[in-house]
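re: ur question from earlier - yeah i can do the single chain one, its not a big deal. heres the input i used so u can compare w yours
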Amino acid sequence: MDVLIHLFVGLHIIGIAALLGGFLTQMKAMGQGTARFVPGMLHGALTMLVTGVVLVGLDQAADHHVDNIKIGVKLALLIVILGLVYVKRDEERIDKGLFGLVGLLTTANIFIAVLWT
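and the output i got, formated as tokens:
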């Protein structure tokens, strides 16, 4: 079971890397006002959602302690991120504030995962 959990943690990290990497590649464009949500950001957020749900299920099945409040906060942030990226995915230009919000929420999600113990 632990090998399966570690596999999904790795996939979860790949998802967050795709989301954050897509954001970081658009930082220069954000400064010019031409940033857009690239497909990798949507795919990364979806990967995070699916692997996160699987990880919670696997942890509960293995009788590991799951902090439901932490998971709920992370899920809420991810749903906001996913909603923004999905709705605005076809737009050529995204408002700087909205694009920055996605980056901020993504970074917050990472720090919640790492620091909330």
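The mean pLDDT is 96. not sure if urs matches, ping me
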